[in-house]
Amino acid sequence: MSNQARRIRLKPWLLAQVNGGRYPGLQWLRQEHRLFQIPWRHATRHMPMSEEENTIFKAWALETGKYQEGVDEPDPAKWKANLRCALNKSREFKLVYDGTKETPVKPYKIYEVCDQPSNGGQGLPNGLGGPGPALTEMPPMPSPAAAASAAPPPEAMGMDAGPVPMDTCSMPGMETQGEAQHCKYDLLSSLPLTDLDLKFQYRGRTARSQTVSNPQGCRLYYGHLEATLGQVDLFGPVTLQQVLFPGTAEMQNAKQKFYTEALLDVMDRGLTLEISEQDIYAVRLCQCKVYWSGPGVSEHGPPNPMERERKIKVFSLNQFLDGLIMFHKGAAPSPPPFEVYFCFGEDWPDTKPKEKKLIVVQVVPVVARILTEMFSGELSWSMDSIRLQISNPDVKDQTVEKFKELQRLLQSQHAQGQWGLHVQ
Q: Which of 60, 131, 299, 385 is deepest in the core (most CB within 10 A)?
């Protein structure tokens, strides 16, 4: 298996997949209860390839870097174990029904999304119940496995099997048991606003993938000289996460190894990626020349060098949110770009593809990737039903307002779909 595992936050990623509807059977159940279903059939190394290709388990393995297509042998059982372990460790999900322990087996599990971290107990929450009587009290449960097997099936909870696309507020005026429903999925608070996915590529081959969760950003460098309080001018702020470039030990081509090492040898000071008000700024400190492309800088344009020790904004979250909102209003032909590429020691962009460059680092703002995935379905919006209202010029307030706008887009779309499918 690949050793390039990277840290991914399970909750925003998994909820984006449930909302996206791309995996058959992965769906919301009775949105007011914040429950969703995961298909959970027995997996083996010998499953037909067609069944391996489109599962949430494989997607999680790819996302976390524990599986690389074309490099690792497909292992569906291992993929499933990885996601099961992640769910078991998470305090933001609670297993409420495990059909795999039933006789006969029902190949799915049902989880609840927890606003506050779960206390570790598993089983059905109080008050769950649709048309039938509510479950007002649950007996003590000796273990998670016993709790899962003791939980009644969805039919006993008054659940319908139809999918609910999004766990959000209902349409205005809709009420359940005499009380207005409340929004139970906060888009803004669930997203990692400052996480960065880094991918180091040496002539097109991924040498390392890593997620940086430092809200200040990171410094990419090679060598043994780390930032200190007395040397900020040389190595950048000490609050940045220090990230080393991969070495060349695994390179087979002697010529590639020679030239790559020549570049790494002049990267002692490195390149900093600093996060300020959700924007990303890059500063080239190293002697090695650095070129970049990203939002607003086309890969098909002329070479775009970074001036040494000059701070450059390479990504704006607010501009991205504006672009995403415009796209889903139908006012833009495609989602906004968000990937940033840094090429070290060679012209970029130019006529050669990135895969031919000695050293390229891809930087992806995780929040942008998740939002793009979340909004990538076939959504249709009413042009006059959506308004973007920003009353305060403060940058942080603008960010919050844009997230609220995206939340309203999701709620409006899925509530409209729900009227035709689930309202009786």
A: 60
Q: Is the pLDDT of residue 106 over 90?
A: no
Let me know: does 107 contact 100? Beta carbons within 8 Å: yes
From the list 408, 400, 11, 404, the residue with the least C-alpha distance to 191 is 11
Whole-number pLDDT of residue 402: 86
Residue 206, classed as helix, strand or coil, is strand
% of the chain surpassing 70 pLDDT: 70
Length of the chain: 424
Q: How far from chain centre, in Å, is Cα 196? A: 10
- Beta strands 279-284 and 196-202 are unpaired
| Distance, CA of 418 to CA of 167 (rounded, Å) | 11
Q: What is the pLDDT of residues 1-12, one digit of tens each?
A: 445 566 778 988
- Overall pTM > 0.70: no
3-state secondary structure 147-159: HHHHCCCHHHHCC
d(Cα 294, Cα 306) in Å, to the nearest integer?
A: 13
Q: How far apart are CA 400 and CA 188, in angstroms?
A: 7
- Hey, CA dihedral for 343, 349, 355, 358, is it positive or negative? negative
pLDDT confidence bin for 81, thresholds 50/70/90: confident
DSSP structural state of residue 355: G
- Determine the 3-state secondary structure of 109 from DSSP: strand
Q: Cα(93)–Cα(36) distance, rounded to whole angstroms?
A: 10
Q: How confident is the model over 174-214, as pLDDT tens digits?
A: 333 333 333 344 677 767 888 999 999 999 999 999 889 88
Closest residue by Cα to residue 86 from 34, 17, 166: 17
CA 291 from centre of chain: 27
